[in-house]
Amino acid sequence: MKNNFKDLQERFGDNLKKIRDAKGLSLRALAANCDLDDSQISKIENGKTNIQLSTIFELAKGLGIEAKELLDF
User: Fold this and answer.
1) Which residues lie below 8 Å from residue 73, measured CB to CB, with a gap of 6+?
2) Three-class SS state of 67
3) What's the number of CA atoms in the CB half-sphere (13 Å) around residue 47?
4) Does the global pTM surpass 0.85?
5) For residue 3, is pLDDT > 90?
6) How confident is the model at residue 66 (pLDDT cuts 50, 70, 90)?
7) Average pLDDT, stretch 1-10?
8) Contact, 59 vs 25, CB < 8 A?
9) pLDDT score recorded for residue 29
10) Considering only the top CATH level, what class is 2-70?
């Protein structure tokens, strides 16, 4: 179960990075668009941290997308 969760975190992070790159946003620019720190976003992209639902909504707000797009991987 732990490995599946880790895989999920990594897949979420990969999708986040793909969307951020497609929008031409740096970590710092995304952080400025939402209530998150750029180092926290980096940890999420690298699958190094647990993601809370509120964080998903903050990231979506910062990217200008629906939260469900972050979960579409």
Assistant:
1) 11, 12, 14, 15
2) helix
3) 13
4) yes
5) no
6) very high
7) 78
8) no
9) 97
10) mainly alpha
- Residue 49 token pair: 């941290």
- On whether the CB atoms of residues 35 and 58 are closer than 8 A, the answer is yes
Distance between CA 15 and CA 8 in Å, rounded?
11
Q: Which helix or strand (DSSP H or E) is residue 71 part of?
A: none
Alpha carbons 71 and 61: distance in angstroms, whole number: 14
With helix as H, strand as E and coil as C, how does 9-30 read?
Answer: HHHHHHHHHHHHHHCCCCHHHH
Q: What is the per-residue pLDDT across 18-52, written as a single tens digit (0 to 9) for each?
A: 999 999 999 999 999 999 999 999 999 999 998 99
Helix axes of 53-63 and 2-22: crossing angle, nearest 10 degrees: 10
